[in-house]
Amino acid sequence: MPNRLAAETSPYLLQHAHNPVDWYPWGEEALTRAKRENRPILLSIGYSACHWCHVMERESFEDPETARLMNERFVNIKVDREERPDLDAIYMRAVQALTGGGGWPMTVVLTPAGEPFFGGTYFPPVDRHGMPAFRRVLEAVSDAYADRQADVRSTVESLRQVLTDAAPRDTGDRLTPAVLAGAYRRLATEYDPHHGGFGGAPKFPQAMALEFALVHWARTGEQPARDMALDSFRAMARGGIYDQVGGGFARYATDGAWLVPHFEKMLYDNALIARLGVHLWQATHDAAVRETCEATFAWVAREMTAPGGGGYSALDADSEGEEGKFYVWTNEEIDAVTGEDAPMVRAYFGVEPGGNWEGRSILHVPRGLEEAATAAGVPAAAMRDSVERARGKLLAARAQRVRPARDEKILAAWNGLMLRALAEAARAFGSTSLRDAALANGEFLFRELVRDGRVSRSYRDGVSRTPGFLDDHAAVALGALALYDLTFDRTWLERARALGAVITEYFWDERAGVFYDTASDHEQLIVRPRDASDNATPSGTSLAVELSLRLAALFDDQAHAARAERALAGLAAEMERFPLAFGHLLCAADLAVHGAVELAIVGNPEDVRFQALGRAAAGAFVPALLLAGGQPAENADVPLLALRGMNATAPMAYLCRGYACDAPVGEPEALAAQLRAACGVATA
How far is CA 335 from the centre of its chain? Predict the structure, then answer.
């Protein structure tokens, strides 16, 4: 018989709906029962694309004896971390304090009041590799709760102190250009010059930190900063972490050279990496970078987009119970699929006898096309044609395999990130298909996930669930601003402005000078969560700070600017010391320190001359570019447009930076030259 999770919409919770465990979703029913019966709560947090979550389910949650023990001694709650990042953040901090590490599946035991006193991640069914068996853990923890309450209370109080210490406090720090320069220097010391990226195995893309490096190059002209971003992107795009057949990036590589991915694919990773790629193309006009971006967006359209325009969350790492089975190839399979092209395909994709991973091959590009063609003894053009033919054949053959499961919930924050990437790519590449995809996604979000001005966290099968968090509101608003930059349709500007007001009302704490991750009217938890660091996704704080700065400049709203600068000041020292943890916030800090480059294009957006000026602006990478466009008479409340070109007979562009303006220009070439000068370095 299904348990209570059968009524949920989260694919992760539904995966556990037929476990013999008496699972509850997080909510009043479970919490009330725990208090009434004085039972400890066993809280299990994971997500649908998590490999070890699946393993623990098969080994423990589907085991009748383990389930019996859980049901007899605990109130069992299952949480999708992607739907409830607030709970995940609070209890992950507790697990990290208890164990020195964290991850998913996350296993936490709470008092009936929701206070953590034990935690860990994956537990095996039997003692193994120094890890205790899960059933042994369950018995020990429940015995401790029943017989050693003094010890439990002592742990609870210690963890309460840890969680309370995360509360904001005024450090007295100030954000300066020196802080940004120091952050870049620290980032450079952590860079891997051999393989790109940062650190060793496992290696994550760190797109936000690479974005900051690109911004630093544009501000200073320091070539190593640009090379850090470009070389890392190229290395990932040539590695196994990138799907050489179907496009899109896996979540991370298990090695230091980007060869062996953890095969799950997440919407947010691909949004962040593709947006970095768009900016790299603007900075370099590198054709291979653009090709990777376009293939990634094609994968999103083909495999990750709902009929209404929303973006699904993730693809699983596993299929048929095996990690990566959908993506890897034997030599025989490659020969059978690609026919006479096989020798060149194997040479290009580094396919060797015996494979490079568990007897099969993860396709990657260990050397450039020219070098691979020389080694194979064929012309480069012939190899290029063979590889392109083979990609189509391999994709078609792979489509016949059992696909990895897809998490079809649509998360507001992740969609906001993808919306921004799509809109910026459509503008940079002049792509009608990407423009259509961005508009469809934006309309979907504001139709299905924005209710009474507030953003919902999650949507699936016609149902929106869970009040939205700070990152949901800010990411969707920034996506709307990107659509305004693409279309100059005031609807998107007003939608972003309205969400900025909601963020101020519900998420900003004037007394503390910080943004909180949950709204002031959110369910009361043991603490109100706030994490300003950029982890796998930009933090709500970094997104809200950037949104506030952009709205402040667009509408000359000094209150927005003051909130952003106050929030940044309290994090200045941490940003300089730990740049990898604050990649997006550092980009927002750059905007605060150096100010926006303001570009107003005055005229009718339907005019071909207006559009030519827009294309000139789209072809350059300019950090902190702030756009406004249209007729001044219709935009009196937008200072960038107001009173400009009232008597002009043709579209004109007005570029300002640092409280000084260039002469207005009507020619695309002249605007491109001004933008290159505004960028501070010569771009392609």
Answer: 37
Tell me: pLDDT of 646 over 70. no
Structure tokens at 547: 């949104």
Buried b (16+ CB within 10 A) or exposed e, 432-455: eebbebbbbbbebbbebbbeeebb
Token pair recorded at residue 484: 């305004």
Residue 17 CA to residue 10 CA, distance in Å, equals: 11
Sequence-separated (6 or more) residues with CB below 8 Å from residue 270: 248, 249, 296, 299, 300, 304, 418, 421
Distance, CA of 600 to CA of 582 (rounded, Å) = 30
What is the H or E stretch that residue 465 is in? strand 463-467
* Structural contact between residues 189 and 650, judged by C-beta atoms closer than 8 angstroms: no
CA 401 vs. chain centroid, Å, equals 28
Whole-angstrom distance, CA of residue 587 vs CA of residue 591: 7
User: What's phi and psi for 635, nearest 5 deg?
Assistant: -135, 45
Residue 485 structure tokens: 């930059």
Q: In the numeric block, which tokens belong to residue 356?
A: 């490079």
* Residue range 21-38, pLDDT digits in tens: 999 999 999 999 999 999
Distance CA 103, CA 123 (A): 12
Between CA 315 and CA 406 the distance in angstroms is 5
Do 581 and 623 contact (CB within 8 A), yes or no? no
Note whether 246 and 228 are within 8 A (CB).
no
Helix (H) / strand (E) element for 119: namely strand 116-120
Give yes or no for a contact between 582 and 543, defined as CB atoms under 8 angstroms apart. no
Helix/strand/coil (H/E/C) assignment for every residue in 130-174: CECCHHHHHHHHHHHHHHCHHHHHHHHHHHHHHHHCCCCCCCCCC
Kindly tell me the burial class for residue 181, based on how many C-beta atoms sit within 10 Å of its own C-beta (0-12, 13-18, 19 or more).
middle
DSSP type of residue 128: B
For 404-456, write each residue's pLDDT tens digit: 999 999 999 999 999 999 999 999 999 999 999 999 999 999 999 999 999 99
* Sheet strands (E) in 534-642: 597-602, 625-630
The pLDDT score that the predictor gives to residue 291 is 97
Calpha distance 115→107 (Å, rounded) = 13
Pair of tokens at residue 476: 């969707």
Q: How far is CA 603 from CA 649, 652, 659, in A?
A: 9, 7, 23
Contact between 479 and 413 (Cβ < 8 Å):
no
Average pLDDT, the chain: 94
142 token code pair: 């429940």
Tokens 């640009």 correspond to 226
Instruction: Kindly state the DSSP code that residue 59 receives in the 8-state scheme.
Output: I
- 609 Cβ contact partners less than 8 Å away, ≥ 6 residues apart: 603, 650, 651, 666
Burial class, 397, CB count within 10 angstroms (exposed 0-12 / middle 13-18 / buried 19+): middle
Q: What are 297's two structure tokens?
A: 């967006």
Question: How much is the pLDDT for 173?
Answer: 75
Spatial separation of the C-alpha atoms in residues 496 and 475, rounded to whole Å = 10
Helix (H, G, I), strand (E, B) or coil at 122: coil
Degrees (nearest 5) of the Cα angle 88, 108, 19? 95
**Residues 265-283, mean pLDDT to the nearest whole number:** 98
Angle 369-376/380-398 helices, nearest 10 degrees? 100
